[in-house]
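Final report, closing paragraph on structural work. Over the funding period we assembled a curated collection of sequence-structure pairs, and we close with a single example.
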Amino acid sequence: MSRHQARARFGQNFLKDQVVIDSIVRAIDPQPQDRMVEIGPGLSALTVPLMARLDHLTVVEIDRDLAARLRQLAGPDRLTVIQQDALTVDFASMGDGLRLVGNLPYNISTPLLFAFLDAADHVKDQHFMLQREVVDRMVAREGSSDYSRLSVMLQYRYRMHKLFDVDPQAFEPAPKVVSAIVRMIPLPADRTRADDEALFGQVVQRAFSQRRKMLRRALGDWAGQVDWQSVGVEPTDRAEQVSVQGFIRLANDLARHVRPEASCA
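Its predicted structure, as stored:
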């Protein structure tokens, strides 16, 4: 096949280090019957070793030329190629027990992570390669400078583990940042949930939109409706000091008084 030129508009950096590839596959531990979906397979560095251990693999690839290459690897009985932007794919419609994997395009990684939330009820686990600073935010705990809206919204829905870093030289072309692998396991149905999840998302968004301000100011007119003592959060706290459970209690208290806004996107 002719050499594929990486396209910046798709955020393409192709994994080439076999040691790293083997480490990722071991971490994923594919089993033959797994319903696995790879996002952004690129030049198939992970696709080929995954297929060697799976009865069938589905891949989502936006690049038309790469999708055509992928279809040459195997027939549709072994490999399904979806040529589409992952942001527009309805993963929830693929059934239950999905295992999502991939080297996510760094330029749209955060929107993708939020999009995957809609399919979490149908997912067994997720293993992604992302920019290390994004992974550090994903797994950060309250009190950390990395703790953010992304931390809260993902930890509300998943149990997460940072597995290992990946050096830029493992890619072609080499990105300007260090990457990392993260494992995300959806929390069970009996997890602690907000009474109004739309409002919960809006509370978190408001709190972190002005993260240097105390909550009594960052939450605006909502602050006067909070029973701070019963919630167990101080009005002088900043967003980065509040745990996921604290945000749930805060949103639940506000749910008695506040109607959620139309959107918190």
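Strands lie at 14-15, 35-39, 57-60, 79-82, 98-103, 123-131, 158-166, 171-172, 179-186. Residues 4-11 have pLDDT under 50 and may be disordered. We thank the funder for supporting this effort.
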